[in-house]
Design goal:
160 residues, five-stranded antiparallel β-sheet, globular
């Protein structure tokens, strides 16, 4: 089973760009990999505002923001910069965050057996365990997550 991530063309004009890469891995009850998908997303307008607010907060030493909650859903409507929520959210979990290198912020969340089952097509990164600001959203072809499957979702946000 192989996949090839899709990367947008890079421009070297000095502008800051956010590129979210999503990887989804579906594991069966036996722990074996059943499906793997990868793709890029649209960075939402309110997500850009969140980053600007975060930078301001960090500058005044009062950083209280958290952008580590991964949500999955079943709406296949294409991403748009104006999105503020998933179309049909079915589950949200706190992700594990890390700094990779080369300006990459990584968030990984695991949706265990019994959690987030269904025809999963959308993924989003949020600032809160409920509601909150959505930084980015991705839609991909369906992954059918059964009740006994485990889905690991990884989002790499490259700030370039």
């Amino acid at each position: 089973m192989s996949y090839k991530p899709v990367y947008p063309e890079s421009k070297d004009d000095g502008a800051v760009r956010l590129i979210g890469q999503w990887t989804m891995e579906l594991f069966g009850p036996d722990g074996k990999l059943k499906e793997k998908r990868a793709g890029t997303n649209v960075v939402c307008t309110n997500g850009k505002e969140f980053l600007a607010s975060f930078l301001y907060s960090a500058a005044v030493a009062a950083s209280t923001f958290t952008m580590k909650y991964v949500a999955i859903g079943t709406d296949a409507t294409a991403e748009a910069a104006a999105n503020t929520a998933l179309g049909t959210e079915v589950s949200r979990h706190t992700g594990t965050v890390s700094y990779v290198s080369n300006q990459i912020y990584k968030v990984t969340a695991t949706f265990a057996t019994g959690s987030g089952t269904g025809a999963i097509t959308e993924y989003g990164l949020f600032s809160s365990s409920t509601g909150g600001t959505m930084l980015n959203r991705d839609t991909e072809s369906v992954i059918n997550k059964g009740a006994n499957d485990t889905l690991t979702v990884t989002m790499n946000l490259t700030i370039s």
